[in-house]
Amino acid sequence: MARIAIIGLGLIGGSLGLALKRANIANLELAGYDADRRTGGRARKLGAIDREARSAADAAESAALTVIAVPISHLRTVLEEIAPALPEGAVVTDTASTKRDVIVWADELLPAPVSFVGGHPIAGKEQGGIDAADAALFEGQAWAVIPSVRASERAISAVENLVALVGARAVIVDAAEHDSYLAAVSHLPLLLSTALFSLASRSSAWPELASLAGRGFRDITRLASTSPELSHDICLTNRENVLHWLDRFAEELRRFRGLVEDGARQEELFKALATVQSTRDAFLHQLPVRPQAGSDIEMLSAGERITAFLMGEFAVRRTKEIQELIEKGERPSAEGPRRGER
Amino acid sequence: MARIAIIGLGLIGGSLGLALKRANIANLELAGYDADRRTGGRARKLGAIDREARSAADAAESAALTVIAVPISHLRTVLEEIAPALPEGAVVTDTASTKRDVIVWADELLPAPVSFVGGHPIAGKEQGGIDAADAALFEGQAWAVIPSVRASERAISAVENLVALVGARAVIVDAAEHDSYLAAVSHLPLLLSTALFSLASRSSAWPELASLAGRGFRDITRLASTSPELSHDICLTNRENVLHWLDRFAEELRRFRGLVEDGARQEELFKALATVQSTRDAFLHQLPVRPQAGSDIEMLSAGERITAFLMGEFAVRRTKEIQELIEKGERPSAEGPRRGER
Known about the structure:
Two copies of one chain form a homodimer.
Chain A: E1 2-7, H1 11-23, E2 28-33, H2 37-46, E3 51-52, H3 56-60, E4 65-68, H4 72-82, E5 91-94, H5 100-109, E6 115-121, E7 142-147, H6 153-165, E8 169-172, H7 175-202, H8 206-212, H9 215-220, H10 228-237, H11 239-261, H12 266-285, H13 302-311, H14 313-328
């Protein structure tokens, strides 16, 4: 029996559990823990975990892979708690929205034979919590993978395989890149959405504005419903990048304001609007490129690969070969295949 | 045979036609016209109109209700073209995104016995054009109704009934209010969405940003895919309001920037984020209030009411009464009911 631990069973942890259960990996135990006992019980009832652990350390004990899906403000404490319990060669990942601090903490707190590979599923929902958990939450979405400097190749591919297994697309970046890019495509949008909803709802005309607000207003303010804890954590842990992109946005908005105001620049305004529209259309039609694994490992599915990681790759390749031989009506050789090198 | 004319058969005109056909009004002819003949043919094929007219004037001729669903930049010309063809007592409405200019043009160009009641369905889609037309486009959405000063009560309720018939919610406002409110909840969001997509896509890191952009970025930049013609028309015809709300937004964004930057104001930042979240949650759960018709007319459905408008109310009430009597097995009286007063 191999074990994956999920610590924190909210929308992300719960959805990850459901997605892993749906992938139907043989001989896998999902141990889960949430500081809120009701959440833990609910996760087990929903089938997001197999076993409710007594503590974060209890969940991580003997887990080959531990996923920490708690708010970043609790992440350091969880790393401290699980550090003594982690087995040799364990891989630890997380799901926090910013990465600079997490990578530093992991480096400081985790023992050397443990590999930390940060993770950030770019997925969410208007509603949070275990009851909003959804096995399909990550399907087709990006999942940033941020290896710490000490992380082994084996640990990185374990996390990549986990990501592929739940239908997401791994994008490997370093922590500084991650925090800067996410400030642009996630944290800035969050603040724009929040400021827009704040402006409209604080207006004396709010009842009239609300009655005339359509789907466009609803969509653009969706991120304003992000939990204030998460939004605040993002502002706190990614302050410089957020301020940088806020300033660049204010500048871009001033550029558009100038074009709207100046009657003599209407052709320029039209061209700017047309460029944005066509660029976005191209962006929508661009198919995400899946990361290519090495040719040696390509024969295995994501499910086989995560089992390979959990059980030792040899056993899986051997099992696969035996099955294929049985299907062909042949007898397996005693030697088995040579173990692949990555 | 009563006639409704739809001039302009893009997403809005086409969807309106489909929604009216779906409402299954007896003895109603939908005449349609689009300057692009291919669009007109396609609309007839899709069942959005019954008859393709040869011109805007041809469509409006003998139509009790004419809906102009063309870009605002063509609206004045259409009003000029149809003015001589409109029958006495005709009601004209439109679907443009701004109203100040439209109301002035209608006042100037339409003959006195014609009532103009402006309209603006707050509904749209990422894709435009007749092929994106959808009978359900307006369901549950707001539809601003902007009566001109000369519009009769009868004309206003005809437009309200049209709106109810396609499943939308009529919100009566004057042109100045409309343009100011829409600047806040629609035109400002359009420019924020556009500026955000512009900023991200002009960045040298755009390939990386695109690969990490999730559903949140897609949703918040959806309005950036608005056709540049429509966006530009909005900027041109609602410039002062757009500039006003752009400035108020810039101020609100600066307020949030200050809270993010100042380490001593984190509690204030958290409170601001929490207030926005809870206000938006309340907004999402607030059920739209349907406008109440007078008690005398409440007995009729929206379909019956639009027929009442088109055919003369008496005939409908009489038909309804006869049907009820037939169901009860009684014979109708020779007099019929007294015609209701509004």
